[in-house]
Specification:
The chain is an alpha+beta fold and 540 residues long. Helices cover 26% and strands 19% of the residues. The protein is built from 15 helices and 17 strands. Helix 6 runs antiparallel to helix 9 and helix 13 packs antiparallel against helix 14. The chain is globular and about 65 Å long.
Length: 540
Amino acid sequence: MRITIRAGLATFGAIALLSLAACSGAPTPAPGGSGTAVPGEPTASSDWILGTTDKITAIDPAGAYDIGSWNLQYSIFEQLMAVPAGESTPVGDAAESCEYGDAKTVTCKLRPDNTFSNGNLLTSSDVKFSFERNIAINEPNGASILLANLSDGAEAPKLREGAIETPDDLTVIFHLNNPDTTFLSVISGAVGSIVDEDTFPADALLPDAEVIGSGPLTLASFTKDQQAALAKNEKYSGTRTAQSDQVFIQYFADASPLRQAIESGGVDVAWRTLSPTDLTSLRSNNAVTVHDGEGAEFRYWVAQTKNETAGKLAVRQAVASLIDRAAIARDIYDDQVTPAWSIVPPGFGGQLPSFQTKWGDAPNADQAKQLLADANISTPVSITVGYTPTRYGPNAVDEANMLAEQLTNSGLFEVKIESAEWTEYQTLYKEGAYDFFQLGWYPDFLDADNYLAPFVVDGGFFQNGYSNPKVNELVVKQQGETDTAAREAILGELQDIVATDVPLVPSWNGKNVAVALPEMKGVADTLDATYIFRMWSISK
């Protein structure tokens, strides 16, 4: 049985959606003033539209590891635990509680009234199925790497036998491979989304338009790169009650039409990603409000160490010596970002400015030249730099060009710049199309581990070929360490090793910013360092 959608959306699949290329006004009114809903557009004054340039990789929780996809999933699905706005500690969501028995054992007790939007009960069997299929599907663009502590570690991974017990319908017991004090935070992310085992296939992704969940909103319709329509889930029984009957997400090709849409009232909220100059201009526009929230955004350049050139340590270290972060923050991002000196952003326990300590706080061409000479590497070194033009905003190309200019002006590098849209880009960078490629990161959970384990363990989620047994050992060690001072010392050692090995080059850290019309409520409250855009909590 599929979800039941309110009358205004009943024929959603047969409609013409909102124009995305140049949204310049409010949604079209109902024909003839009859009061009949125009499918795909707000039907009541409380319905609202979110505008974004984010791309959706997949709505199935086993199929994506990106902020756009995850934010849809947070609205549609429940996780065992969830992080409330403005906080960092997970609380019960589908579970009433999850508690450690010891550092390798976690027991969760489910709410007895959990129901999927199709009417099926959510039980412990669904929870086990959700984790098991995510690991087994092992989608290259997915987040199953975060569930390694439940995996058998094989080349074709499976849920380790005995990793999850379900003694009754409301009890789930996790037996971890290694002690992990971050596990509750991990499963509060979208990777821990619970799916209906009677709806989702065990060995393949469910098509986007067919997903159902037990979260506060249901997916009424989805057209990739155009629009998603969400409706209040009348069967939802948790604490994240939707404040609006319908929410629409409009996907824009780039920042320019998104800015036009928020200025004209064509969308109610613009979140990710407007250009720094757009934000500067909009701050003086009295018709909208620019909301600045706490952020932990991280922009960085990954070295594809599987490639011959970027596989050479001295090449990577030379790039780390030449990048001018202050110039990038000032000239490309209008000083709305700050230089990043570590893989871990400021504010997280154990953070150290390791790249600044190792390579200095300003470009050093002499140092880079010596590194290459000592390694007998002839100059100029030819490298390819990759970026994706839409996903990270309109300034991504400018940052790529500035990095190329900085490297080229040293006389030590010859740089070729290439780009691809996000879906193709993910495949290309893993295949080695670029020696260095640009990525951005928003935390899955608020802990330094989330900026280390997914990045530096055996090639990381971006599969760059980097592997250091000492790093792998320290990652596991800090995850199980319960003494704060001892754990922070391990985290510092990890950051220092990363600064020496340079599997990636940090660029900058940013804030969580949204622009909204004055009548929107709840926008500022959701702009925290988790980057969870809690659409259910926002109203008009």
